[in-house]
Amino acid sequence: MLLRRIFVQHISCTRRTQTSNLQNRFSACFGSKREVCDNDGSEAKQEFDSEDNWSYADVPRPGPKSHRKPYPTPMKVLIRRAKEEKKARKENPCRILEHAPENGLLVPDLISVAHQVYNARELLLHGLSKLVDGEAAIPIKKCRFCPEVHIGHRGHDIRSCEGPKCGSRSSKHVWIRGGIRDVIGFPYCYHLYDRVGKPRVVHKEKYAVKRLPAVVELCIQAGLDLEAYPTKRRTKPVYSIDGRIVDFEAENDDDELAASNFETANEILRIPLSDGKIEEGTISELSARTLQSWLDMRSGAMKLMKKYSVITCGYCPEVQVGPKGHKVRMCKAAKHQFRDGLHAWQEARIDDLIRPNYVWHVRDLDGPPLANELKRYYGKAPAIVELCVQAGAPIPKQYESMMRLDVVPPERDEYDLVA
Q1: CA–CA separation, 246 vs 240, rounded Å?
Q2: Whole-structure pTM value
Q3: Which of 50, 280, 344, 358 has its CA 20 to 30 A from that of 35?
Q4: Residue 66 to residue 58: CA distance in whole angstroms
Q5: pLDDT tens by residue, 82-117
Q6: Distances from the Cα of 357 to the Cα of 246, 360, 370, angstroms
């Protein structure tokens, strides 16, 4: 037994030395080549990263209705910011706010962005009116009992209805004709005449204050001037005394400043919109312009949201543009009894300001309807993107993975054979 153990140990030691020698030889022979390959790989990786390639993106899944929306900014960061602001307020109780738009002034670089976002919204609505209600209109279907929308001649057969009495219908949708409001949604908010001096709307002013689309309100606060929604423009920054905003600017200059702003706004906001019929061969160009205006509106709104605060309720879709949320008791979502109908305000995302309204992607409008058994092979896209793509617009790169263009769905009689 002892000799056998010694023999086995000897064999294992010889094998280890042989493998180590082989590794040293390979490293000596191919080390230089490996370095060259690594350098080439790093250069190729840098070139790949430098290009405008979009990562994989899927449709965001909504959480339970009883749970609060996730915070865009982590809670620890919000707590640290609040402590820093409180410390700065104690060190200097009376101070001039230096940074815009907290001090009541406009950000000069974002005034043109606000006009571009407003113009893009007008062009988007004009293009949608032609694509939905024009001569070459693409049919839009919506469910009678739930917010589901479908782009196509026939509604899909996917059983995802959550409306009233959906159990008796086996969660099947009941399709009716849809419109522009079903394709894209603009949530409304209260208009603020003075976003710094009076940032809140109380419950008594529920019907006295005008409401308008939140995107338009964001553009107004960023420098857009509309006669129907007057707003106060300041030329001097405001003071912060013990956390309260104090304005020492005279009110006589407001009328002159507003008049000059209306003149410049009328010059910038002239949008050439043709009311003529769509000619043959131009429907694809119109859809491409409409889709590009939607992308420009979203990108411009994201730039504005980095400076101008937009908040939303953590439980319902209510949105308010401004430093603080309103105090109108109109929340009917989960746990509203504990808040006395008030909203649970938090930082908003771009999808809260401009709702994408995701729909199933249809590859062939004239083909059979989408089957419930093959729903995991189908992709989704925002309704405006699906509408413009069906009209002939090119597919944006950021939505290619979401639409699952690289997936080939099996036939109905083959789905049980696929793993």
Answers
A1: 6
A2: 0.79
A3: 50
A4: 23
A5: 999 889 888 888 888 888 898 889 999 999 999 999
A6: 42, 10, 18
Query: CA 21 → CA 13, 40, 179, distances in Å?
Result: 12, 28, 74
Give the model confidence (pLDDT) of 322-351 as tens digits. 999 999 999 999 888 899 999 999 999 999
Phi/psi of residue 42, nearest 5 degrees: -65, -40
Domain extents for the chain?
Answer: 92-408
Cα–Cα distance measured from residue 159 to residue 375, given in angstroms and rounded to the nearest whole number: 10
Q: What letters, b where the CB count within 10 A reaches 16 and e where it falls short, cover 124-143? A: bebbbebbbeeebebbbbbb
CA triplet 338, 343, 349: central angle to 5 degrees?
Answer: 135
Total count of residues recorded for the chain: 419
